[in-house]
Design goal:
Layout lengths: L2 H17 L9 E3 L9 E4 L3 E3 L10 E3 L9 E10 L6 E9 L6 E7 L9 E2 L10 E6 L3 E4 L7 E7 L7 E9 L8 E10 L10 H21 L1
Helix pairs in contact: 1-2
Length: 224
């Protein structure tokens, strides 16, 4: 086999290998709350858009704009979220000041209508937000976030097990009686994925292949 054939084989192998790699997909959902809520989003109770309270990065947030009270149940919910891909991560920035043990926050994922505390999902090991065992609240259950550890940070949840499903996601808060605080606020909510790999070359791969073949042609002409 001559040098030209070896070079052509190497180019084809490398470029077809690139073509078979998964591409980076667009986010499945993103919300920074600066432009209001979409048609598939809603809030309930004391949760509202605001810039007061525990603002994050100086921008609008979703949560408690003016603190919370006794026996409160509030949430922000997204409906009709189509989860696709092989690695689906839900993340958001948060800031919270909640009475430890007695009051809390957690995330529920399931098909509409939701029936919490069924469907509570746990944060990943690398998440800044971690649940602890506290008071058994009627909608949250006994496992929830109470801000005693990491009152600010980035929360992360792995939803890969639900790939292929269309779900509702509820970010819910509940309190009992006695002490009330500034509450919970969230921002920069993102649901991202890694698309399923495809062996079909993308247009960029074809362009690279063309450049490689053109370069090979030039090198052959110089040798002549």
């Amino acid at each position: 086999m001559n040098a030209n054939k070896i070079t052509l084989t190497a180019i084809l192998s490398a470029l077809l290998g690139l073509a078979s790699l998964p591409s980076h997909g667009a986010p499945l959902f993103f919300q920074d709350f600066d432009s209001g809520l979409g048609a598939n989003e809603s809030s309930y109770g004391a949760f509202a858009l605001g810039t007061a309270g525990n603002t994050i990065n100086g921008s609008a947030t979703m949560g408690h704009p003016g603190g919370y009270g006794n026996y409160e149940y509030s949430y922000y919910q997204i409906d009709n979220v189509a989860l696709t891909g092989t690695k689906i991560l839900l993340s958001f920035d948060y800031s919270a000041y909640i009475e430890p043990y007695w009051d809390g926050f957690n995330v529920v994922v399931g098909t509409d209508p939701l029936n919490p505390p069924e469907g509570v999902v746990s944060p990943t090991a690398s998440s800044g937000m971690q649940y602890s065992v506290g008071y058994n609240l009627s909608s949250l259950g006994p496992v929830h976030f109470d801000s005693s550890l990491n009152p600010t940070g980035k929360a992360e949840f792995d939803l890969s097990a639900l790939s292929g499903s269309t779900v509702s996601i509820r970010f819910q808060f509940q309190s009992d009686i006695s002490i009330s605080n500034s509450g919970f606020n969230m921002d920069n909510l993102l649901i991202s994925n890694e698309p399923v790999s495809s062996a079909v070359p993308e247009p960029t791969s074809f362009a690279l292949l063309g450049l490689g073949l053109a370069g090979l042609g030039l090198s052959r002409r110089k040798r002549r």
